[in-house]
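Bug #77: duplicate submission created two jobs. Keeping one. Sequence:
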Amino acid sequence: MDIRDVEVIAPNFKRRLSGVTSTVVQLLPLQARSIGIVSIGPDVLPPSVPRLPLFALAKLWTRPRRRRVRIWHARRNIEMLAGIVLRDLLRMPLRLVFTSAAQRHHTAWTKILIRRMDAVIATSSKSAAFLTVPHRVIMHGVDTRTFSPEGPLPAGPVAEALAGRKLVGCSGRIRPQKGTDLFVDAMIALLPRFPDWTAVITGRTTAEHAGFETDLRRKIAAAGLSKRIVFTGEVSDIAAWFRRFDLYVAPPRNEGFGLTPLEAMASGVPVVASDAGAFADLIVDGVTGRVVPVGDASALADAAAPYLADPDRLACAAAEALRHVRAHFPLEREAEAIAALYEEIWAEAVRPHSTR
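Kept job's structure:
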């Protein structure tokens, strides 16, 4: 893309997959239909994401064709810092936006960076409560074409071995923060009562948490459930697995926002989740699933049990989950709200008193 056609840059400075990266991957192709937006950073994003190489930063003194300034939309501290350097030290014509998902008190350093932003987005009312600057709440949405009941199912030996089984799924990196151990404990309590069901855990285990996974496997083996609590490792098409799940459990101890409940519900799957991230704002408790206290494996098991026991309850919740997400959390709604903020920033930039 010609740099003069680039109106917004959404940097992605992290090589590994994360919730922030998932947001960029889903949102940018949709935004690119109406504005000149690209990502910039290590070449780790899929081809569907419009992007520029890092050396293109040197071209940001050039103004875009249609705007007086270009927007730098950061989602991490390092990306905020880079934007500040480009705007304030190198005097590039930029305005800085930051999206905050954290549900905790920010460090002094993060607060300094946030105060230098031109606009701040909070992804939920919970994350907004920890901001001390003016902000706007724009909740994440989900691509309801990618995450949908219609589409391919997972293939390969693991999927073939699970043919004909009812599946309760859990997805995310294998580590304590994500509550994988809570899911395992809940399944050890539940599965002996429900012989038609199997639990599936998708996600990568880093070297740091290899011992954590080993301990989980030992606990599962001791319970005699090694064939009914299955680890797939990292999967290439998580949307296919969401379609295959009959119930989804999201057990994190803490979370920024948390997209997986939306992705599951958009696939027609009810969700039982801990009250982490924005989960309580995403799930209609008792209708599209259940929300239980954080860190409570027994509560997860108790909330999931009625769905495993009653196919009619499961089917009703699945239909409500799909309807709810399509009505309230389509990705288009998030893109439109962000675009409206961008337009306000551009309008402010053309006013005579607007200088930096």
